[in-house]
Amino acid sequence: MKVTANGLQIEVDDTGGEGRPVILLIMGLGMQLVAWPNGFVQRLVEAGFRVVRHDNRDIGLSQGFDHAGTGNVVWQTIRHRLGLKVRSAYTLQDMALDSLGVLDALGIARAHIVGASMGGMIAQRIAAFAPQRSTSLVSIMSSSGARGLPGPRREVTAMLMRRPLGKSEAELVAHSIRLLRLIQSPAYPQTDQELAERLTFSMRRSYHPAGLMRQMLAIGADDERPQVLPRIQCPALVLHGDADALVPMACGEDTARRIPGSRFVSVPGMGHDLPPEVCAILANHIAPFAHAAEARDSKP
């Protein structure tokens, strides 16, 4: 369903029903709400939560920003590597306000804010700047954005630089599978058929590469988040795979180090994806953590 959030039309999925504590799920770069597997959502619902997930602006079925163009992405990337200010059509703070607007549209005062990858960065901003709305924070396979942290493995960077061989659905899916093979969880590999089915479903729902580029620039422009993280006061849980080839575990460790009182959990064999086995592990960490934070929040 569509809601108006922060002045934009945002696509939302709301599962579990009213009267329960709410978990807001925020997905990562270029990923749609369906990237949160239904099985993961169902585990959280069965644990007693109402689960809200949404397409971020410029992706999926939410409002796009094609009118803003993408600018010179290569030049902006060079500026980021040189430590210069990156220009972007919008910021991660704008995207945080979108997520808060989703809660407003649904009449939700507070929620457990859970984000993966770029979604973790957005979640961090919500927890820092809207403490009255944040019962707890869970940052998954994300980063503090601090300078000097390790980047993707060399082969992942090389793959990210390559373009698909063509523009057909089959060629785009094959290209994405080659990347996912490099960043998936080595302890829980998925078959090419499983990956292809998921990618095909996602692409047929929406395929918007220009939105991904603008979101990438928003990440590059978010250079003050390391200084923002110490402002977070709610309970915080940082989850990261020890085999993440895209966002190395050191990035999650640095996030936890900067958030007062946070707890860091390393997930053995987890990469930068959400296969069923990893979803079960994450849900088993998130549910009791959120229930404990809920109990703490309800005390007078």
From TrEMBL:
UniProt GO molecular function: triacylglycerol lipase activity
One Pfam assignment: Abhydrolase_1
Listed InterPro entries: AB_hydrolase, AB_hydrolase_1, AB_hydrolase_fold
Coiled-coil annotated spans: none
Keyword set, alphabetical order: Hydrolase
Domain of life of the native organism: Bacteria
GO biological process, one term: glycerolipid catabolic process
SUPFAM superfamilies recorded: alpha/beta-Hydrolases
Sequence ranges assigned to domain AB hydrolase-1 in this UniProt record: 21-274
Listed PANTHER family: AB HYDROLASE-1 DOMAIN-CONTAINING PROTEIN (PTHR43433:SF5), HYDROLASE, ALPHA/BETA FOLD FAMILY PROTEIN (PTHR43433)
Name of the featured protein: Alpha/beta hydrolase
